[in-house]
Every structure is written in structure tokens, then in C-alpha cells.
# Entry
Amino acid sequence: MSAMTDGPASVVKAIPHRRRSSKKRATSILLSALAVIVFACAAFPVYWMLQTSFQPNNEIIGSQVNFWPKTFTLRNYETVLFATDRAQFLPALGNSLMVTIFTVIIALVFAFLASLAVTRFRFRSRKSFILTILIVQMIPGEAMIVSTYRVLDNWSLLNTIAGLTLVYVATVLPFTIWTLRGFVNGVPVDLEEAGMIDGLSRTGAFWKITFPLLAPGLVATGVFGFIQAWNEFLLALVVMSRPEMMTLPVWLRTFQVAHGTTNWAAIMAGSTLMSIPVIVFFLVIQGRMTQGLVSGAVKG
Amino acid sequence: MSSLTAASPSAPSVPAGTPRTSAAKRRARFTPYMLLLPASAVLMIVIGWPLIQLFIISFQEFGRAQVFGAPAPFIGLDNYTKVLGDPAYWNVMVRSLLFCVVNVVVTMVGGTLVALLMTKLNKFFRVLMSVGLLLAWAMPALTATIVWGWMFDTSYGVVNYVLTDLVGLDFHAHSWLINPLSFFFVATLIVVWGAIPFVAFTVYAGLTQIPDEIMEAAQLDGARGTQRFRLIVFPYLRSIFLVVTILQVIWDLRVFTQIFALQGIGGIREQTSTLGVYIYQVALGSGEYGVGGAIAVITVFFMMAISLYYVRQSLKEEQL
# Structure
């Protein structure tokens, strides 16, 4: 888009050169300042979380607010990691990791198979399957909790890793199928056919030619599923009520309630520990995801 | 081989030199169904079955007693009439809709402005701004809410400190969450802060796809900034705007985490519950599964009606 601002300058010669360029510079300074403000507003809460988490609690509840830790401490992280009142961090981390990783693996495999079916084959009920996927994606989870809870209870799946994983796989699947479908579509069938002419079997052509091209798409979709499952709060709250079965979001909330307003520093340390993996993953895949969202879900 | 989608589905191209037996052909016909089986099974079990159950429960008297094994008699539309006759439900509905409208409008306008700003920046400032937006986008909704709650804390929050000690207003020990209106002001800040990055990046991606020549031609023809936006950019990005707006409407109507967690920090439940939180409170909080089910069924239909356009648009864009 740089042509929008630079391009016309070479074409339009009517305006005196100097006045135009100084006006242009003023505009560009103003816009850059705006960008800095947007950056500050967007990043401030993240900064605030971090810097609070490194302060001793007695200093953040003084009359003065520190914009930078006066005393740098890791004690809040110690409190979070090893506090023994109520639910504990490490088991919650374990639960979160297990549920999230199982969810991602299962959802990726299932979604991959399904996306192959809808992109590489023509069959009856193909369109209705895609339609179902889109509709299912729109069913609000908040409405479903009423019966999801009852159904899981009947199957004795409440407070189990398997139960929450099952629910998460179903939650993540529609989006995963839809996105993977876009990625598979992006690999031309011609490539596979060329491989088949060269003597590969159909399956061989797929694994040797298409699959390597899909790997980045699979990674990006998987990471997106990871983030969704890692962050999910409502279903985890409903399904995992026992302290030893809590996932990180549920743990963070009880931790917050347990400590009331007294230990914000520790709560910020807990929030940091929960957010960091997501932020790192997100920064890694963001380019591909925005691309995928635009070409897949919201193709212009 | 007839099932392989080539570029032309009506005339399937059979690759030369691959003779197929009829057994292989038959297998190929079943392959897609086998591939769909695992995904379909999971969706049936976790979405389909509970959805049917939800529907049934909504016509039953289903409370605490039924959870512990008492029979659940069918009571026709009683749950529905109870819900629709309850002013508390309508309050929640109106509150959710208002919250949704305000948030969608602010998010869309803000996101679009940020996207436009992105196109005008040089690389350094564009990257800087993107990093900030990505941080906001990546932050989990729950931790974001807790952090904002801390920033707006009555006694030690940075917001009250800045407004009182640096700006000079009287916000000493001001409680932001007790008053419903200012509760929703904070909630809006949290939701909009988290949603603007998605809108901004999506619109920006759309903006970069508008051919430069068109913008230049318009500029040469003397179209001003706002005219260019109205006459070129907006029509060009119409479908992106529509789809993103609908997604925002759906997400903001369903907002749960932010409201629920903010209520936990402070704020009066009865005056601040939105649809998702209300269902949770009625069904799992007070154990009235039947009534909660009725609200949920109404909500599902309501959401479906809204998302219909999104579904249609997605199907149209994709040329299945």
C-alpha cells in the first residue's frame, strides 16, 4: 500500500515541492504517534500483568503505584507454584497439558481425514456434511452446557480427562475441518495426478506429494486448536469441578477467589504462567492464521 | 476413480495408465464415508445427542430432585411460558443485545481505523503496532479479564491512581464494578481490546488486496480520503466487513468468560448477567435444568437465525 502515499507524489507536480513534503512529514509524524498510542493501549495490560507479578505484594498495595518494580522478586511465582491451600498449580498444569495435547492430536487426525473426504472426493451428502460443520460451529456452547453436563454425568465422564477431551475435540473439530479443508484445497490435485502418471499409487502420491505441502497448514491449525483448548473456561468449569481435576483457567479463578483482593501479585504471576505459552504460540503462527482466516473462513 | 475431484467435477478425469478393478472402484465409493466417520461420530456423541437431550429436558420438569433420580414428567410448554413471562429473562435479553450492539460497533469502527492506519505507516511503526495488537489478541480472555480487573481495582488499581493523582480527578477508592453501567464500561473495554486485533488484521489483509492502480486512479480523479473509503474500499471489502461483523455479533452475544470473571471480581450478578451467564446461573447455579434448557433452546434458535447469513455467505464464497 505504500503506493498510496508515495505514488502520487511523482505524478502530481502542481503543488510546490517543499510545502507538500513538509506537510507530508507532519502527517507521517502524526500517524506514527497514533501507532505508538495504539501499541501502548494494546500492550499495556500485558505489561501491567508482568510488572505486577515481579513486585512484592506489600508494595503493590501501598499508596503509591509503581510503574516499574521497585523491588524485583520471584516470590509470587514461588507462591503460585508451591502454595498448598486449595487447588494447586502443578496438577492443574498437568491436566491442562494432557487435555490440550490429546485434543489437538485427536482433532487433527479426525479433521484431516474429514477434510480429505470433502476436498478429494465427490459423493452424495458431501454438501450436507459441510453445511452441518458450519452450523455446528454456530451452536453456542453456553446453551449446550445444560445437557452436556447431564450427558457426561450419565456416562460417568465428569471430572475425567477423557470427558473434557471428548467435549473439546467436538468443540475444536468444526473449525479445524473448515480450515484444513482450505489448506488441502490449496494443493492442486494436478500435482497428485502427475505423481500418479509417474507411477505412484494414489495413496503414495498423496503421502509423498500433497502431505509435505500440507504440513505447515496442519501445524498452524493444530496450534490454533491448542490455544482454544488451553484457554477454554466455561466447559472446564462445568466438567472439572473437583480440585485435583481442574485445568489452569478453572484453577486461576479459584485461586483468585481464594486469595480475594489480598494477593494480586500472586494472581498476576499465575495469569502470566497461564498466558505465556499462548502468547508464544500465537506469535509463531499468527501470520499463517490471518492468512488462513482470510482465505478460508472469510475469503474476500 | 469417479469420486476423485479433479478441476472439473462433472467430467472426472481418469489418469492414463491406471487400470482399476471393480473392487477398487467399490472401495473408492466407500472411502469418503470412512474418512468422515470419526469426525461425524464425535460430533454426534458430543453435540448431536446433548442437543436432543436439551430439547427433551426443556419440556420436562427437571430440577434438583430429578438429578437425584426422581422421574421427570413432561410438562408441555410450561418451562417456555415461565421463561418468557419472567421479567428477569427479558432484562437479560435486552442487556445482552445492547452490550452486543455497542461492542460490535466500537470494535468494527476501531478495528477498521486501525487497519487503515496500518496501511499508512512505514515498516517500523507497522511492525510495532502489530506486535502490540498481537499481544492483546493472544491474551486468554480469562487472564485478560483478571488483569483488567486488577487495573480497575478500587483501592490499588492503576486507573484510579492515574485519574486521581496524575489527572487530578476524584477517583480515590472509586468502585468501577458496583454500578452496572460502569461494570459494562469495563467489560466493553476488555471485549473490544481483545477483539480489535482480529478485525484490524482481517480488514488490513483485505485492504492490501485492493489493486494499487484503482486507488491511484481514484486519487488522480480527485477523490478525497473519505470518498475513497466510501466508494472504493467499502464496496471492495463488503463481504469481509459483513462476515467479520456477523462473527463479532455472534461472539459478543455469547460472551461468557469476561462477564463471569468480572462478576467474580466485583459487581452485582442480578444486574450484570448476560445470556450465557444467565443460562449457567439458572441451570447449574440454581439447578433448574428444565428452565435453563428452555432458555438454551430459545438461544440456540436465536443464534442460528443470526448465523444463517454467515453460513450462506461461507458456502457461496467457497463454491462447493
